[in-house]
Amino acid sequence: MILTEKSLLCRRVGIALSCIADGHAFDFMAAPDIYTFVGNAIAAVSDIDGDVFHVDILIPQS
How many H-runs (helices) and E-runs (strands) does the chain carry? Predict the structure, then answer.
């Protein structure tokens, strides 16, 4: 749910967001921490001047 919300936000502001992760890879993080982590990545990209932005989140299976 968090990634869906953030991907919609990215689409609205012109940022391509891709996430490749095993859902269990996030088990060690609480939902608010995931929300903050992704939000911080989007905010960091938003602060850069340019035309094309892409945020990749890759969490390999352990």
Answer: 2, 2
